[in-house]
Amino acid sequence: MRLFEVITRTVFAIASIVLMLLAAALIVYAGVQVIVAYRQPDPEVGSTLLEAVGYTVIAIAVFDVGKYLLEEESFRTREMRQAGEARRSMTKFVTTIAVAIFLESLVTVFEASKADISTMIYPTFLLLGGVALLVGLGVYQRLSLTVENEVVSTGEKDKKTARMRKSNG
């Protein structure tokens, strides 16, 4: 069983590092595209900058996924034992993805408004998807916090009962 754990952690570490390197490559690619656009005789800098923002946003999301996998699956020597710890970790992860979705939808709105207004439906759906993700995160937060509080109050009652039995017995 120990060998399987080592192999699993190694695979997650390699996948995480590959994701982080790909994210860095996206950012470098975006920067190179901006430099190339400025060197053109008739620069299309505006659209290139918007594309660079899109690549950078995607790179941040990919990097965060890689970081999350590295921290949670490779470096941790134990599972998350407390519900609060899992909730905070999940919230951070989903929030990063939501920010990436909102920024990408904003970039897509600018691109669609300049090209063809009939394509505005796609960034609108992307924006609605981001809103649904945030609403889902809010529901998750509310439900998990409620369960956490119930578990804590049940644990406190059990401790109080045990103390009363010990003092009476």
From TrEMBL:
TM segment ranges: 12-32, 52-70, 90-109, 121-140
Keyword Transmembrane tagged: yes
Keyword set, alphabetical order: Membrane, Transferase, Transmembrane, Transmembrane helix
Molecular functions per Gene Ontology: transferase activity
Name of the molecule in the record: GNAT family acetyltransferase
Provenance organism: Borborobacter arsenicus
